Amino acid sequence: MRREKKQKEIDTKEMPFLAHLEELRWCILKSVLSVFIAMIAAFPFTGIMLTVLTLPNNHLAEPAKLIFLKPTGMLVVRIEIAIAVGVIVSIPVIFYQLWKFLMPGLHAHERRYFLPALLFTTVCFLAGAVFSYFVIIPTVLPFLFGMGTDTIEATINITEYMSFVIRLILVAGLVFELPVLSLFLTRIGILSPSFLKRYRRYGIVLIFLVSAILTPPDPMSQILMAAPLLLLYEVSIWISVIVQRKKIEEEEDEDCKEETGG
């Protein structure tokens, strides 16, 4: 009788495929709207943000001269900065919408991890962005500018400089989400600690390959991106171990309750 009641509850919670698509569409629209609103709100402050983002260059012993070559150059730069800020500010909203879409497929005891998971996801992204701004960019810029000679000085279009900086910040924020991805995939049973340990060598090769694709084509930025990724891979293994152990304990508790009729 209890099993039939539980099955009936599951059936009432099931959603048809088109309803899932409609829910996904609304989640995407709300995420895009959040980015757009944050972008509009950030645009008046892009002058301050422009100053902050050019500090890594201005603090160099021999900073590059930043120029813009088109009448609309600075407008494009400010829009790009506003979009990047809109994405970063909207990270909690975006992950909330993703969690909201996945929530119907989660058990009641799994849903209580919502706030910790949202906080963990946001912190990981911000940690990656901060690491990129304070470590990767100040290290990469002198290396790249050092390729010049006594007669060839660095005079860079501000649009290219800003695209370079923003790309490194966003990419670093995303790659720092590796522990979150490990937690989620282990929780749903796709990933396991033994898999991560068995294929560690392939993972290292893949990390350097991803770093080469996501970062500018210079070895310094690739190494600086790969180094924290290697550390995050090891952290992901430990997270996967903890999550799997917790999952096994919860399954054993559920089995005990079913056997005792609790």
Describe the structure in your own words.
- It contains 12 helices and 2 strands.
- With 262 residues, the chain is an all-alpha fold.
- The chain folds into 2 domains: 1-171, no CATH class; 177-262, no CATH class.
- The two termini are 14 Å apart.
- Residues 1-13 have low confidence and may be disordered.
List the helices and strands and how they pair.
Layout: H1 2-13, H2 17-42, H3 46-58, E1 65-67, H4 73-89, H5 91-102, H6 108-111, H7 114-145, E2 155-157, H8 158-175, H9 178-187, H10 193-198, H11 200-214, H12 219-260
Parallel strand pairs: 1-2
Helix pairs in contact: 2-4, 2-5, 3-4, 4-8, 5-7, 7-8, 7-12, 9-12, 11-12
End-to-end gap: 14 Å
Structural class: mainly alpha
Mean pLDDT: 81
Specify Rg, calculated over alpha carbons.
23 Å
**Total number of strands:** 2
Integer count of domains: 2
Net shape? globular
Characterize the largest beta sheet: strand count, sense, and whether it forms a barrel.
Answer: 2 strands, parallel
**Percent of residues in β-strands:** under 5%
Q: Give the count of helical stretches.
A: 12
Pattern of helices and strands: HHHEHHHHEHHHHH
Question: Biggest sheet: strands side by side, in what order?
Answer: 1-2
Q: Identify low-pLDDT runs.
A: 1-13
Estimate percent helicity: over 70%
